[in-house]
Amino acid sequence: MPWLQVRLAISPEQAETYEDALLGVGAVSVTFMDAEDQPIYEPDLGTTPLWSHTHLLALFEADTDETNLLAHLELLTGTPLPLHQFERIEDQDWERSWMDNFQPMRFGRRLWIVPSWHAAPEPDAVNLLLDPGLAFGTGTHPTTALCLEWLDGQDLQGCNVLDFGCGSGILAIAALLLGAKQAVGTDIDPQALEASRDNAGRNGIDPASFPLYLPAELPPQPAEVVVANILAGPLVQLAAQITSLVQTHGRLALSGILAEQAEEVRAAYRDAFELDPTAEKDGWVRITGRRR
């Protein structure tokens, strides 16, 4: 069925007030959106920051009276409404629309990420079956793309790989499909490990070749290839640990790094690694090198 959408331009300080008011007058959903493409990176633990200019979107049933709605909102908040607008949203097959946004993606020469509802564009290529998820990595973000392109360009035949912060398992699974003998995955989130396990099964990966660990349980066994697509802060803080997990002359790829953070991360690793030139994609970078 169609919906009535109201959009309010608010500040972060107004968010809770207007969210409660909108739900109080019958909104079936309330969503916060960035009004100015302002990124928020690495928020403090336990915080949910909002953008300095935020749009609050609320959906109501189509027959909701706009005048009465505005009057009730002003009564509940006790102040004039901020800048706002109404829009009629026609009904559609939201699941179908969502699925249509995700097409097979190619990384490098050999590797494709293919959603389950699509046929592989190149059946003889290296095809990794992976459906878009909520948080763990599907190849659409530049940092994941940078790592996949790097893996595609490496000779991984018979190698041992460590995916540090494995998320969906996309990098480890790609490494295995590209010829690695074993890929170890570790993540602080048990749900990420479960997602990795599910995605490995979807791709016919033998569980014995893809062991998964919480960080406290990770064996301190150096690998020939280590990939860590996390965030710049943890990469710097964990530099000694990550370095210890790369064997002598082993290869390292780091991402999850903004371009302006690249030098700080490079500084944390340059003593132990012969670093390559930094690769950049859409404001994000990948740092690679070989352990001395």
Can you characterise this structure?
The protein has 292 residues and is of the alpha/beta class. The chain folds into 2 domains: 3-91, 2-Layer Sandwich (Alpha-Beta Plaits); 136-291, Rossmann fold, CATH 3.40.50. Helix content is 28%, strand content 29%. It is built from 9 helices and 15 strands. The protein has helices spanning 15-24, 66-77, 94-100, 142-152, 170-177, 190-202, 232-237, 239-244, 262-269, and strands at residues 3-10, 29-34, 54-61, 84-89, 105-107, 111-114, 126-129, 160-164, 182-186, 212-213, 223-229, 246-258, 273-275, 279-281, 284-291. The strands form 3 sheets. Strands 8, 9, 10, 11, 12, 13, 14 and 15 form an 8-stranded mixed β-sheet that branches. A 4-stranded antiparallel β-sheet has the order 2-3-1-4, with helices on one face. Strand 9 (182-186), helix 6 and strand 10 (212-213) form a beta-alpha-beta unit. Helix 4 packs parallel to helix 5. The termini are far apart. 33% of the residues are buried. Mean pLDDT is 87; it is low at 35-52.
What attributes characterize this protein structure?
292 residues; Rossmann fold; 2 domains; eight-stranded mixed β-sheet; 9 helices; 29% strand
Number of domains: 2
Number of helices: 9
Rg (CA only): 23 Å
Q: Could you say which structural class the secondary elements and strand pairing correspond to?
A: alpha/beta
Task: State the end-to-end distance.
Answer: 63 Å
Query: Please, what is the average pLDDT?
Result: 87
CATH topology annotation of the largest domain: Rossmann fold
Please name the CATH architecture of the largest domain: 3-Layer(aba) Sandwich
Low-pLDDT runs: 35-52
